[in-house]
Write a structure and sequence with these properties.
This protein is mostly helical and 275 residues long. The chain contains eleven helices and no strands. The two termini are 38 Å apart.
């Protein structure tokens, strides 16, 4: 699929962007010190002292990650603007791809996988692996326009397509049954939640990982970004609540509203439950 380019909104230089950058620099320093304590414990510190320091660092790192998300979202116009898809800097592509993902699953559930693929010009599944099928589905969802927001949406999509592949390849149900049940079970909520978590992570990574690498080196940068990704996924998964979806009409604005509310909820959680 070809890639075209266009001018996209940027938040770099906005005051809250600077605050997010400072927060992630603090996170990187905390990760660096924590790793040093683990790999090269100072002989002057007892195991108990090291444990207390690691606990303090863990809280500092977690708070810094939440502060970074909070300020990044503020820089893009605030939670309401981002979660509604109104911000071209962060939110627009995320909402668009999330809606397209759900509408694609709805179409496949209605037509059957074979019927849907044929409507897209793919006439046979013969010789195709589960991964081949998932890649084919993704190719009709992802954005092919370059830009930070579109890249973030595509990277988040890749994450939930991996979740979809796992469900398709391990379920005893047929592919058609998997698609139908995704829309009436927790799977669709879990996928949307992790999509938005990874979408926010990608924005953090694109905006700040290079700066961290320049200041701290590649090893600390990689460890920091991995720590942030793990924290985001942990926050998302631990926040799951009972949210009935059986009666949601995914073909109407009700589905779009649900998606925006979920994004808003995820932003609130990743911001440390603060606006």
């Amino acid at each position: 699929m070809g890639t075209s380019h266009r001018h996209t909104a940027t938040i770099k230089g906005e005051p809250n962007w600077g605050n997010a950058s400072k927060a992630l620099t603090s996170v990187a320093s905390g990760v660096e010190e924590s790793d040093n304590l683990t790999n090269n414990p100072p002989p002057t510190m007892s195991p108990r002292q090291i444990g207390r320091r690691q606990s303090t660092l863990g809280k500092r790192i977690s708070n810094g990650e939440h502060r970074a998300v909070r300020n990044l979202v503020r820089a893009a116009g605030g939670r309401a603007k981002v979660s509604s898809g109104s911000s071209r800097a962060i939110g627009y592509a995320g909402i668009a791809v999330a809606n397209k993902f759900v509408s694609t699953i709805v179409e496949i559930a209605d037509k059957g996988l074979n019927g849907w693929l044929k409507s897209k010009g793919v006439l046979s599944l013969e010789g195709k692996s589960c991964r081949d099928i998932v890649d084919c589905i993704r190719s009709f969802i992802e954005v092919d326009v370059a830009g930070l927001d579109n890249t973030a949406a595509n990277e988040a999509l890749e994450h939930i397509m991996d979740m979809l592949e796992l469900e398709m390849s391990t379920s005893e149900r047929s592919y058609d049954e998997v698609m139908t049940n995704i829309l009436t079970e927790d799977s669709i909520k879990d996928m949307l939640d992790e999509f938005f978590g990874m979408y926010i992570f990608s924005h953090l990574s694109q905006n700040f990982s290079e700066k961290i690498g320049y200041e701290k080196g590649t090893e600390v940068k990689n460890a920091t970004m991995e720590d942030i990704k793990d924290q985001i996924i942990e926050d998302v998964r631990s926040s799951r609540t009972v949210r009935p979806i059986e009666l949601i009409d995914w073909k109407s604005t009700e589905g779009e509203t649900f998606i925006k509310k979920e994004f808003d909820r995820i932003i609130f959680i990743l911001s440390g439950n603060e606006d």
